[in-house]
Design brief:
Elements lengths: L2 H9 L1 E6 L3 H17 L4 H9 L1 H4 L1 H7 L2 H11 L3 E11 L7 E4 L12 E7 L10 E3 L11 E3 L11 E3 L9 E3 L5 E6 L4 E3 L8 E10 L11 E6 L8 E2 L9 H18 L8
Length: 272
């Protein structure tokens, strides 16, 4: 077993991993911001690009399948891996946006925890820009109680927040340079603070699962096979998008959001 994998198993995370070069990261950032300009007058499409980038942006799908990103994931999950979802987490300059302490798998409606998130930095990610914070070893705990806040500046779907005290002094700040990534377990306590700088903080979170995972509800969202084979058929396999926000890809992305909302918002009466 590699030394980094031993640390991942012990702490529930590992970083930094050089996934792409800083020059490549800048190139992907430029492609993202060019796509954002295309939909500058369409907030719904811009939001869709953040929530379902691998479904509607060819370059996000390209990153999700990149061997330098997927290969470390297979060391954790095994040879057969799906991309379950991807999200751009963007904090604008001098933004109040934050992410409360939470566990990813709490609201994902999965039957197990064979999941890992690869978080790729496309900008400088520092304490000042609002990098992630991890609590080492917290992935060994069971799911803890969360409360829903629906706070406006919280980037999480329902403003979910761990309902137990988290000792900030124990937190590790996940500072990354453009092109570096971190890996973290879906039960790990983590969150992030606002961006107090004059640059955007841009990260692409890629959520990978073993092919034997499935949703606990009678739902069948889309996923992408990025390594090995799928012998289970628990998800509808999705091909790469044909470009940037093509009509067919957008329709599938909206359908997938509707499916995912059924477990992401389960137990709430919020009119979404």
């Amino acid at each position: 077993m590699s030394e980094w994998k031993k640390q991942y198993d012990k702490d529930g995370y590992y970083f930094p991993i050089q996934a792409i070069s800083s020059e490549q990261a800048l190139g992907y950032r430029k492609r993202l911001e060019a796509a954002e300009k295309l939909v500058a007058d369409d907030p719904a499409k811009k939001k869709l690009m953040q929530l379902q980038p691998a479904a509607v942006l060819d370059f996000a799908d390209e990153l999700a399948r990149m061997p330098s990103i997927v290969n470390p994931v297979t060391e954790i999950l095994g040879d057969d891996v799906l991309l379950w979802n991807a999200t751009f987490f963007i904090k604008e300059p001098q933004s109040d946006s934050f992410i409360s302490w939470h566990q990813d798998l709490k609201y994902w409606g999965m039957d197990d925890s064979h999941e890992v998130t690869a978080w790729l930095a496309l900008s400088d990610v520092t304490t000042a820009t609002g990098c992630m914070k991890f609590v080492p070893g917290s992935h060994t705990l069971d799911m803890v109680e969360h409360i829903d806040t629906f706070e406006e500046n919280n980037l999480l779907s329902r403003g979910q927040e761990i309902a137990v005290d988290v000792n900030e002094d124990e937190a590790v700040h996940v500072q990354l340079k453009p092109g570096e990534m971190s890996l973290h377990h879906g039960k790990l306590f983590h969150g992030s603070s606002p961006n107090s700088t004059n640059d955007r903080r841009i990260g692409l979170a890629l959520r990978y699962i073993s092919t034997n995972m499935q949703q606990t509800a009678d739902l069948k969202p889309y996923a992408k096979l990025v390594a090995g084979k799928d012998d289970y058929g628990n998800f509808r396999l999705l091909d790469s998008p044909s470009g940037v926000l093509s009509e067919d890809d957008v329709a599938i992305a909206y359908e997938n959001i509707e499916i995912q909302e059924q477990f992401l918002f389960a137990g709430t009466n919020l009119e979404r």
